[in-house]
Amino acid sequence: MELTLSRNQLMSKVFFGLFLSLLSAFVGLGVGCYLPPALIVVAMVAELVMIVVAMFIQRSRRIGMGFVMAFTFISGLTLYPIISVKISQLGATLVLEAAGVTAATFLISALVAARSDFDFSFLAGFLFIGLLALLLTGIVSLFISFSTVAELIYCVLGIAIFVGYVLFDVNRMAHHGVAEDQVAWVVLSLYLDIINLFLFILRLMGVLQSSRD
To answer: How do residues 112-148 score in pLDDT, each as one tens digit?
Structure first.
């Protein structure tokens, strides 16, 4: 029988799990600097496979926090080359600023979603379509160089989509609750929201800095 947590229990358990997942990713980020590029590529493949597996497993049985911790650690490994390149291009200060902006954006969005009486569930369809548009645009950008304006639009769209997902995910918990065995999946969803939000904010700040130079 599924156990539905009270609102306060749910928020505490999910956000504690989210804290642990971010800590796991940070450890992975630290380990990533010692890995050769070949192993980073292996980690990237493993990360993609785990996401696909999680989506299929979720339909039949629940993923656990062990799976989430393993995934976030691997995610940290794969984030290292991205962060390393950004630090060399933009400087460590700007990367830290992007992390701070991400944290503030997430906390404000989560607070609004949790405390608002408004139901954000209507966003589901729009967010899914927006996510598909981001993926397709990202693939196109691998072959076609974007102008500065196109880059700005892409970054702003990405930020809007993942802020929307934070609003949607947190608001759904606050309004509709969640079964206890779904907590790990919610933690994973919020982790992905934060990481993608961070990457788009970092990209936007890089574009803005480049346009000023």
So the answer is: 998 888 888 888 889 999 899 898 988 888 788 888 8
Residue 103: CB partners within 8 Å, gap ≥ 6?
Answer: none
CA 58 to chain centre: 18
Q: DSSP readout, 134-180?
A: HHHHHHHHTTSPPPHHHHHHHHHHHHHHHHHHHHHHHHHHHHH--BG
Place of tokens 């539905």: 4
pLDDT, tens only, 31-58 = 999 989 899 999 999 999 998 888 777 6
| List of residues 6+ apart from 4 with CB closer than 8 A | 177, 178, 179, 180
Cβ atoms 178, 125 nearer than 8 A: no
What's the maximum distance between 2 C-alpha atoms anywhere in the chain?
Answer: 60
User: What secondary structure letter does DSSP report for 121?
Assistant: G
Residue with tokens 């902006």: 101
Tokens linked to 8:
């306060």
CB 36 within 8 A of CB 213: no
Per-residue tokens: 193: 């929201």
Instruction: State the SS3 of 5-34.
Output: CCHHHHHHHHHHHHHHHHHHHHHHHHHHCC
Rounded to whole angstroms, the Cα distance separating 169 from 148 reads: 32
